[in-house]
Amino acid sequence: xxxxxxxxxxxxxxxxxxxxxxxxxxxxxxxxxxxxxxxxxxxxxxxxxxxxxxxxxxxxxxxxxxxxxxxxxxxxxxxxxxxxxxxxxxxxxxxxxxxxxxxxxxxxxxxxxxxxxxxxxxxxxxxxxxxxxxxxxxxxxxxxxxxxxxxxxxxxxxxxxxxxxxxxxxxxxxxxxxxxxxxxxxxxxxxxxxxxxxxxxxxxxxx
Amino acid sequence: xxxxxxxxxxxxxxxxxxxxxxxxxxxxxxxxxxxxxxxxxxxxxxxxxxxxxxxxxxxxxxxxxxxxxxxxxxxxxxxxxxxxxxxxxxxxxxxxxxxxxxxxxxxxxxxxxxxxxxxxxxxxxxxxxxxxxxxxxxxxxxxxxxxxxxxxxxxxxxxxxxxxxxxxxxxxxxxxxxxxxxxxxxxxxxxxxxxxxxxxxxxxxxxxxxxxxxxxxxxxxxxxxxxxxxxxxxxxxxxxxxxxxxxxxxxxxxxxxxxxxxxxxxxxxxxxxxxxxxxxxxxxxxxxxx
Amino acid sequence: xxxxxxxxxxxxxxxxxxxxxxxxxxxxxxxxxxxxxxxxxxxxxxxxxxxxxxxxxxxxxxxxxxxxxxxxxxxxxxxxxxxxxxxxxxxxxxxxxxxxxxxxxxxxxxxxxxxxxxxxxxxxxxxxxxxxxxxxxxxxxxxxxxxxxxxxxxxxxxxxxxxxxxxxxxxxxxxxxxxxxxxxxxxxxxxxxxxxxxxxxxxxxxxxxxxxxxxxxx
Lengths: 207, 290, 218
Known about the structure:
The structure holds three protein chains of three kinds.
Chain A: H1 4-22, H2 29-64, H3 69-88, H4 97-128, H5 134-149, H6 152-157, H7 161-170, H8 172-196
Helix pairs in contact in A: 2-3, 5-7, 7-8
Chain B: H1 4-19, H2 23-39, H3 50-60, E1 67-73, H4 79-96, E2 99-104, H5 110-121, E3 133-138, H6 143-149, H7 153-156, E4 183-188, H8 194-205, E5 209-213, H9 218-226, E6 233-235, H10 236-246, H11 252-255, H12 257-289
Parallel strand pairs in B: 1-2, 1-4, 2-3, 4-5, 5-6
Chain C: H1 12-30, H2 38-73, H3 81-89, H4 102-132, H5 142-161, H6 170-213
């Protein structure tokens, strides 16, 4: 029950998606369609499970007055505030508190978190981008051509700069990416097959 | 007077200082490289690249009144790159009189798409919800949702973002699967996004698919253009700016191009200085040893 | 109600408060550039909390109600009890003695993804990408032919590099080495584009601070 049932469920679930591709007949479609609807629902519960875990972990820290416990209160308050506002006070449409919080708190916070990366990529480029070998020079030269040729200043310095960049992107760059894609596809397919037939069982928690 | 030995020592000290420069100095330069061009724009001219032209043409060549699915799979983390694209796609479709069916696979992007739609609607006040456009909203399930739409869109999205029954909306009459849509445009911030649409929908249901994506993922999608799996590609803020230029409607992407140029030059200079300092220091250390 | 009611509406004062609130949160996050500090920690935790609450609310309105609850309770689609139970079983992880039940639900999700991966990568990436690379090496046009030759050599040598079952020596090793050149060009292009992407994100935020908040740009 603890090992065999999940392996069987996993196999059947995966098989149904593979079979559907090869048997796209109207008569079997509703069966597969039901299965997909189930998947959408279970994945929603998985999302809520993740959130429940956040609440649980942070509640324990607050309860024990662990490190940064005060900030954890802010986290929990923010979480429940959004749920309460969205579900009980006006919904999620424009003009609601929920929408306002999204526009003026969530959106700037997330945008700025990611904007920080601009500073760190510049700093990392200064410290770590060293042209020591032929391969590293290829990487650096391509990066610099793309960086300058993709922005208007490059084009204003040399008219054919964008054409050179397009050629790099469409020929040597594309060849490298395609090799990676084909290799990754083979890897992903073999791993998925191992999961389906029960050779890869790490999702069972080590048993 | 300083002799050559002393010069070497002085140079070494300067190079060491340069190499160990406080990263906050770099941060200041980066911030200024963006703020100054925004304050004093010179509006450098730029041309339109082929993938962007193809993206534009793919919409422009549609029969008038086509029903186009725009899946907006992004969130505020990539807003400066993708929000202008989102607005521009809505604008081009509305301007041509096409019908927009939009949806999201990222929960965190749903309200952003509502915002984009409201912004474009200011220019098209006569467009009616449920008739000319609909927001199907967010659906959990990533690739499962994509494949499921291939069998039944109304079953996958029983209600729209506003809670209306999808089957009752005029725009959704006759829309059951991808076969009933003329084109699929994806605004992609990562995963799930263009890659998944290509793998699960384009290759399986043979839908015409265009992509507007972040610059980070754009190189990954070039093979899909060459293989014909994508009809066009907008890569990052520059792609959005080129698209805005084609639409003759400059927006926030075009406005950011000067800052983009200057910040790239600054990063280029930092890489150059970093390498010069590194190799010169290596050389001077060797010389001092000798 | 999900959409209709308006609580704040088009209130200019709320708009103004919103801009100031957004600007202060932006500055709180940027303060991390100097060093880690309480303002950043506040913003970071607020972000995680709001993000989680937002996600749950969207899942409730967009999936739970239309795809499960309403069809189950209003349309009598009792078959949906099955995924409902699978969903509930996930929460058995919180109870030590029954946590193994959650593996059933996990197995369902993982199995579905494994199936999707095989079909998607097989048809979309593997077959179509190989097919797209079967190009004529002489087309009658010099530049086009040269590009096709470079593409073919690049993909084959790139794949040789990823073939680890044979030692990279001799002609095979030379092929692998040429493969790395193409991969390096590919990584270089990706780096260039990544810089572009990151700078765009910063442009967005600085523009907001200068135009939306301070009003010094038009």
